[in-house]
Amino acid sequence: MSTVKPGYARPLDLRKGRVDLAFGAGGRAMAQLVTELFARALANDYLERGDDGAVLPAPGPGERLVMSTDGHVVSPLFFPGGNIGSLSVHGTVNDLAVMGARPLYLAAGFILEEGYPLADLARIVESMAAAARAAGVQVVTGDTKVVEQGKGDGVFITTTGIGALPAGRDPGGARARPGDVVLVSGRLGEHGMAIMAQRESLAFDSEIVSDSAALNGLVEALYAAAPADAIHVLRDPTRGGLATTLNEIAAQSGVGMELDEAAIPVSPQVRAACELLGLDPLYVANEGKLVALCASEHADALLAAMRAHPLGSEAARIGIVTADPQHFVQLRTGVGGRRMVDWLAGEQLPRIC
Amino acid sequence: MKYVDEFRDQALAAGLARAIAHEAGTGRDYAFMEFCGGHTHTLSRYGIADLLPPTLRMIHGPGCPVCVLPIGRVDMAIRLALSRPEVILCTYGDCLRVPASDGLSLLKAKALGADVRMVYSAADALALAQREPGREVVFFAIGFETTTPPTALVLRQAAQQGLANFSVICNHVLTPAAIAAILEPPGGNAPQAVHIDGFIGPAHVSTIIGSRPYEAFAATHGKPVVIAGFEPLDVMQAILMLLRQVNTGRAEVENEFTRAVTRDGNLKAQALVAEVFEPRASFEWRGLGTLPDSALRIRPAFAAWDAETKFGLDYTPVPDNKACECGAILRGVKAPIDCKLFGTVCTPETPMGSCMVSSEGACAAHYNYGRFRDVPVQVTDTAASRNQETA
Q1: What predicted TM-score, i.e. pTM, was given to this entire model?
Q2: Residue B377 carries which DSSP code?
Q3: Does the CB of B377 have a partner CB in chain A at under 8 Å?
Q4: Is the model's pLDDT at B189 over the cut of 80?
Q5: DSSP B164
Q6: Nearest to B384 among A258, A326, A333 (CB)
Q7: Could you tell me which of A259, A18, A193 has the C-alpha nearest to residue A116?
Q8: pLDDT digits (tens, 9 = 90+) for B30-47
Q9: SS3 of residue B298 by DSSP
């Protein structure tokens, strides 16, 4: 009787195992990591095929493709409200969404550090999968590399995304016009302060939770509420916060802005934490907030659409676009004075996303 | 936020603004100096200039420890950190970007391989020395009287524990000497100060030294001093108190910040500082020049923990860029916009002079918060006026 044994590979030890150099070497170990962890969690036909790339259908008639990429090196890897896995999905989905696109597909590149616990990696990949499902995107291709211990910081993830831009939509940083209204979808600074509080072991009465979220649903709600050409600029104010985002737009569009400090939503916890650490919430990062600059006649409808969406219940109208050859962003302060809100000088807080 | 929002109330600010305008409505001009960078920051951050009458001018003083730190002292720390691989140089975060010679800063020295680390407190630096017995931990200590007691404490603890791998580069400076130097005729070719009618005294510094040390200054120079907290309403109240003193011909030390400052200050902290530190005969201040009795050094009894002695560090003074007007700006003779470097080659990203180094410096505060005042802004749209109505 023939005794050919069936092929057997001991399953990955996702409880106690650790990343070793073989996982990045292109051999069986790597194939096993892909099959048992990545492909299983991110399950879709494209990954299932195991090819070097994904063959994707062409977008609908009249649609254009939008592509964006984002590297993630956040420290700590796990924070209240998310981890590097969910963040890496939200980061790229949001970059596509604020271009006006419907995000469709992601590619993910992992750089793993030798010795990193597989259990933690599995949690990261699971949360990536959950974030992708919630955002309605598929992770269709990927890559894994392993660096020696001490040469990475656990896990770095780069995601690249492709989205479809429907005809008529053309938001862009250079399209702000004097008279436009500045809307923001909610309370500022929650991602940055959640990371900071975690990193510095600051304990507050109520925990500050990162706002990390996919904004494509909110963006679709805006396009449903007003003509596409009424939405001039969309941005997600990540690193450098609202202040940096608005200065970028002012420079790109060649305009100024006037904000009202009292109208800018900031939670009491974030305000208190910023006060304690000497930070300005306008410069603290967000990962689930949308800034929209729109034609003033549609501002009320767009604000109402934001507030009707679960991610925009605290949305506010915070200022207007002015004609200013200096491209200054100015703020009416709470005590009734005026000041500039300038670009961030230096680094307020490194490695937040 | 309780105990904070009360001091940022718009209605109260408007009331104070009216009282200030009324008190200043005498037909003359007034010029006050806020010595402390914390007050400079408050004035700029809250746009308080808009709430003051045009006849009242605030001059931003030199009370920003990062700004007055001379280039030579930073050079000294950089040389030490680069030349000795066993050294871990620790300092407060805002020191890291101070520009030094050869285009370097402590942050750039770190990129060149020096082990430079940011700490939040002197105690963090001491703890690092305890954790790293194989390394030499050097704490680059800066600051006015507020940050001196924590440095004194870690020096005493290091001595008590016989911790041989910890030392301090002491750059602690003294407020009263610097305030006096603003008014006294400067040596060399430093510019003479403009007329100043009175001073807003520091908040945190005064919690340590109390209000008494300003009394001799007020009497000698005939200038009122009002010690004030760092909130916008504190500063406005202090301006009103200064106006009332000037208008009634008084030159007293008054205390607006009674919720934290007493006449004698923190005696325990003062005793600790006196145990560990002694006055330096003179010390160089960036922008102000060399001032007598204006800084502290570590007493000989603690020489084993004095990095300057331990590593035989030499001090070489380095002049600022010739076009830099920091000295004149700190004395109120010139405004930031009068300096050719301001906003061109000298910006918060690439500071050339001391006033641009930290956000509390006169130039950086004006650049970050106030430079729109140098050019009129056209608000052309009807939406602007509509928005103002709803604000």
Answers
A1: 0.87
A2: P
A3: yes
A4: no
A5: T
A6: A258
A7: A18
A8: 999 999 999 999 999 999
A9: strand
Contact A181 B383 (CB under 8 A): yes
**Residue B186 binned pLDDT confidence (cut-offs 50, 70, 90):** low
Beta carbons within 8 Å of B70's beta carbon, 6+ residues apart: B284, B285, B286, B317, B318
- Regarding the domain delimited by A173-340, which CATH topology (the fold level of the hierarchy) does it fall under? Phosphoribosyl-aminoimidazole Synthetase; Chain A, domain 2 (3.90.650)
- Residue listed under structure tokens 């580069």: B169
In eight-state DSSP terms, residue B231 is S
Contacts of A335 in chain B (CB under 8 A): 8-10, 13, 46-48, 51, 232-233
Contacts of A293 in chain B (CB under 8 A): none
Pick B70-173+267-310's CATH classification: 3.40.630.10, 3.40.50.11740, 3.40.190.10, 3.40.50.300: 3.40.50.11740
The residue count of chain A comes to: 353
Q: Please give the full DSSP string across A4-49, using - where no structure is assigned.
A: PPPP--PPP-TTT-B--GGGGTTSHHHHHHIIIIIIHHH--HHHHT
Suggest the residue from B381, B382, B389, B390 to mutate for an interface test with chain A (most A CBs closer than 10 A).
B381
Domain ranges, ordered by start, for chain A: 21-165, 173-340
Where helices occur in B185-230 by DSSP H, the ranges are 204-209, 215-221
Q: Which CATH architecture does the domain made up of B5-63+176-255 adopt?
A: 3-Layer(aba) Sandwich (3.40)
- 3-class SS of residue B31: strand
* ipTM surpassing 0.85: no
CB A130 within 8 A of CB A25: no
Q: At what angle do helices B232-247 and B10-23 cross, to 10 degrees?
A: 20
Query: Which of A271, A324, A342 minimises the CB distance to B1?
Result: A271
**Contact in structure between A134 and A167 (CB atoms under 8 Å):** no
Higher pLDDT, residue A333 or B62:
A333
Distance (Å, rounded) from C-alpha B69 to C-alpha A298? 53
CA B185/CA A337 separation, integer angstroms:
35
Contacts of B4 in chain A (CB under 8 A): 275
Q: From CA A210, how far away is CA B382, in angstroms rounded?
A: 38
For chain B, what percent of residues have pLDDT higher than 70? 93
Compute the distance between CA of residue B43 and CA of residue B118 in angstroms, rounded to an integer.
28
Question: Are B139 and B167 contacting, i.e. CB atoms less than 8 angstroms apart?
Answer: yes
Confidence of residue B376 (pLDDT cuts 50, 70, 90): low
The CATH label, of 3.40.1390.10, 3.20.20.70, 3.30.1330.10, 3.30.300.10, for the domain at A21-165 is 3.30.1330.10
